[in-house]
Amino acid sequence: MKRCETICRQLNAPSAGWSREVLDHCRVCPACRREMLAQLSGNDSEALALPPALEARTLAAYRKVKPRCRLSRVVLWSGAAVAAACLCIGSGVFFFRPAPDGTPSAGFKSEPVWSGAGLERALSEIGQELSATQQRLGVEDLEDHV
């Protein structure tokens, strides 16, 4: 009771505003809350009066609400980022995997396997022609002149 009397004196004192302690007390004490409402409405306590059921539900809802900490938001977004990365990697692996039996899969067309045997044969023939030409012309190795 002594605390409520102190709060009521602070509510009635002419000042620019009320302290956090006064507001916190008025949130839990119905008598002091009515006094604060009376001060706000210009000493007409019925002007700002709320129905008791609405006031009780509002206060109960206020007490249940817990502010979300910043860490929980970070964990939520990092989990969503990991899930998105797994989805991207998984879809890439699924759509572009090679078929086990050698048939083309849905992701890409398979090209025929290229063999370099023909190119090696052609390069060998070119090398032989160059050697024969050098011998006919009597030219020493071109590497010595370079």
Which tags fit this structure?
mainly alpha; rod-shaped; 146 residues
Written account of the structure:
The protein is mostly helical and 146 residues long. Among the domains are: 63 residues, no CATH class; 32 residues. The protein has 7 helices and no strands. Helix 1 packs parallel to helix 3 and helix 2 packs across helix 3. The protein is rod-shaped and about 125 Å long. 3% of the residues are buried. The model has no long low-confidence stretch (mean pLDDT 77).
Question: How are the elements arranged and paired?
Answer:
Elements: H1 2-12, H2 20-28, H3 30-40, H4 52-64, H5 70-95, H6 117-137, H7 142-145
Helix pairs in contact: 1-3, 2-3
Proportion of residues in β-strands: under 5%
The helix/strand series, from N terminus to C terminus, equals HHHHHHH
**Terminal CA distance:** 110 Å
Number of helices: 7
Instruction: Give the fraction of residues assigned to helices.
Output: 55-70%
**Strand-pairing-aware structural class:** mainly alpha
Largest sheet: none
How would you sum up the global shape? rod-shaped
Number of strands: 0
Radius of gyration from the alpha-carbon trace, in angstroms: 44 Å
Taking pLDDT < 50 over at least 5 consecutive residues as the criterion, the unreliable ranges are none
Q: What would the average pLDDT be, to the nearest integer? A: 77
Brief overview, please?
It contains seven helices and no strands. With 146 residues, the chain is mainly α.
